[in-house]
């Protein structure tokens, strides 16, 4: 495919710095005769942070087979961003040389079964978290058809490998390398005493295993999927599984390793003077 046949969509967040980078990027893409369009693009470029990439992922979540993403981060390095704002020329060069190669990561499929028989389906790039709207959530957790535990607490989060560094990490979950196709269940403030018991640690579940959560107090629950929150009444159960689709990123010759991203985000430079 020649550049002139390659359709590219560019989005940025509201930050002036991101908008500026976005304008410059658009100008350079035009100069190099790429087609700029939001409609059925081959490549979607997100300018901003990981939060912005989450937004554009959901915008094109029905076209995951066709679309490849590129993340440009204004500021520090992100988990879904391969380029920094000062690397626009490098990005253009790589797009010109692009052969269609991609790096892909697992995503999460969440299905919400309501008591009236209807089923809602959502995709998550980071995680889905179920909480009871008010009061303590009580829910039975089933892993691969084993009635595992009765959970009492604020809620339960199920994250993807790339989402493991987001909310999951704040919940004390492990950081998972994205080549490990697994989901992670993390507890949100579980109640543990002589009467109530949950495992306490987070659990890493392999690709084929299904996670099911059955809320027992069936009034109103919220389910947060990445950056959006939905409210449901009368949920019968919620199912979590790795989706058949993956998110694809344009492979970059200087693709930053996952451990470099983890180090850059959470550790920074190590001072060896001390
Ligand atoms: P936000 O509340 O504006 O920002 C959440 C922060 O998480 C941002 O700094 C974002 O990075 C970062 N982030 C997003 N995905 C990440 C990932 N995969 N690994 C490491 N850091 C990541 O919300 P948002 O930007 O719309 O993002 C929604 C996400 O926020 C949710 O999916 C959830 O994971 C996370 N969240 C975390 C907590 C918590 O830690 N207590 C609570 C609620 C939600 P950028 O600055 O690069 O955008
Ligand atoms: Mn940020």
Automatic annotation (TrEMBL):
InterPro entries: ATP-NAD_kinase_N, ATP-NAD_kinase_PpnK-typ_C, NAD/diacylglycerol_kinase_sf, NADK. The active site is at residue 50. One of its GO terms (molecular function) is NAD binding. Its main location: cytoplasm. It is an enzyme of class 2 (transferase). Its cofactor is a divalent metal cation. Keywords: ATP-binding, Cytoplasm, Kinase, NAD, NADP, Nucleotide-binding, Transferase. Gene3D superfamilies: Probable inorganic polyphosphate/atp-NAD kinase, domain 1, Probable inorganic polyphosphate/atp-NAD kinase, domain 2. Its EC number is 2.7.1.23. It catalyses: NAD(+) + ATP = ADP + NADP(+) + H(+). It is found in: Cytoplasm. One of its GO terms (biological process) is NAD+ metabolic process. NAD(+) binds at residues 50-51, 126-127, 152, 154, 165-170, 189. One of its GO terms (cellular component) is cytoplasm. It holds the Pfam family NAD_kinase_C. Belongs to the NAD kinase family. Involved in the regulation of the intracellular balance of NAD and NADP, and is a key enzyme in the biosynthesis of NADP. Catalyzes specifically the phosphorylation on 2'-hydroxyl of the adenosine moiety of NAD to yield NADP. This is NAD kinase. It comes from Streptococcus gordonii. The gene is ppnK.
């Amino acid at each position: 495919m020649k550049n002139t046949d390659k359709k590219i969509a560019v989005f940025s967040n509201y930050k002036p710095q991101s908008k500026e980078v976005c304008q410059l990027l658009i100008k350079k893409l035009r100069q190099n005769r790429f087609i700029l369009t939001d409609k059925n693009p081959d490549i979607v470029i997100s300018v901003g942070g990981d939060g912005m990439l989450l937004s554009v992922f959901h915008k094109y979540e029905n076209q995951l087979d066709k679309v490849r993403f590129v993340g440009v981060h204004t500021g520090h390095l992100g988990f879904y961003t391969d380029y920094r704002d000062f690397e626009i020329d490098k990005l253009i060069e790589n797009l010109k040389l692009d052969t269609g190669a991609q790096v892909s990561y697992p995503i999460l499929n969440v299905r919400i079964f309501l008591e009236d028989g209807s089923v809602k389906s959502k995709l998550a790039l980071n995680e889905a978290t179920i909480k009871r709207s008010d009061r303590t959530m009580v829910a039975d957790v089933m892993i691969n058809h084993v009635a595992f535990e009765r959970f009492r607490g604020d809620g339960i989060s199920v994250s993807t490998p790339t989402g493991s560094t987001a909310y999951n990490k704040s919940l004390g979950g492990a950081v998972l390398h994205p080549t490990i196709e697994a989901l992670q269940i993390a507890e949100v403030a579980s109640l543990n005493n002589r009467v109530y018991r949950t495992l306490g640690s987070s659990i890493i579940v392999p690709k084929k295993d299904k996670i099911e959560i059955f809320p027992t107090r069936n009034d109103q629950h919220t389910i947060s999927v990445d950056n959006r929150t939905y409210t449901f009444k009368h949920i019968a159960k919620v199912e979590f599984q790795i989706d058949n689709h993956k998110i694809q990123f344009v492979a970059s010759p200087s693709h930053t390793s996952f451990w470099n991203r983890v180090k850059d985000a959470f550790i920074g430079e190590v001072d060896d003077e001390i």
